[in-house]
């Protein structure tokens, strides 16, 4: 399987929350925070439902490209 590259401007949608049902909402859009070491290890740094950022394996997410209006709204909400 080809490794998917993520970046600080990428957005992902959660496709699996079985191991973390209280921390991740299925089908919710999350912003990926920059963390090159985490990405190299196959993880993503995500601000989860606790409001804190944690590492989750990238297989729980699929990258998406939402419209600019949605990107701006997510960025504003995560400040």
Shape label: globular
Number of E-type strands:
5
> What oligomeric arrangement do these chains adopt?
single chain
CATH architecture of the domain at 11-65: Roll
Widest sheet: strand order? Answer: 4-3-2-1-5
Q: Which structural class matches the secondary elements? A: alpha+beta
The overall pLDDT average reads 87
Give the helices and strands as they follow along the chain. Answer: EEHEEEH
The largest pleated sheet is described as: 5 strands, antiparallel
Tell me the β content.
25-35%
Which topology of the domain at 11-65 does CATH recognise? SH3 type barrels
Low-confidence stretches: none
Q: How far from one another are the termini?
A: 34 Å
Cα-based radius of gyration, to the nearest Å: 12 Å
Specify the CATH class of the domain at 11-65.
Answer: Mainly Beta
How many helices in DSSP terms?
Answer: 2
The level of helicity is 10-25%
């Amino acid at each position: 399987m080809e490794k998917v590259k993520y970046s600080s401007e990428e957005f992902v949608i959660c496709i699996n929350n079985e191991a973390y049902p209280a921390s991740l909402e299925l089908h919710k859009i999350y912003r990926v925070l920059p963390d090159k070491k985490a990405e190299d290890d196959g993880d993503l740094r995500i601000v989860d439902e606790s409001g804190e950022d944690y590492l989750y394996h990238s297989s729980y997410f699929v990258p998406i490209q939402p419209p600019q209006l949605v990107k701006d709204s997510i960025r504003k909400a995560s400040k």
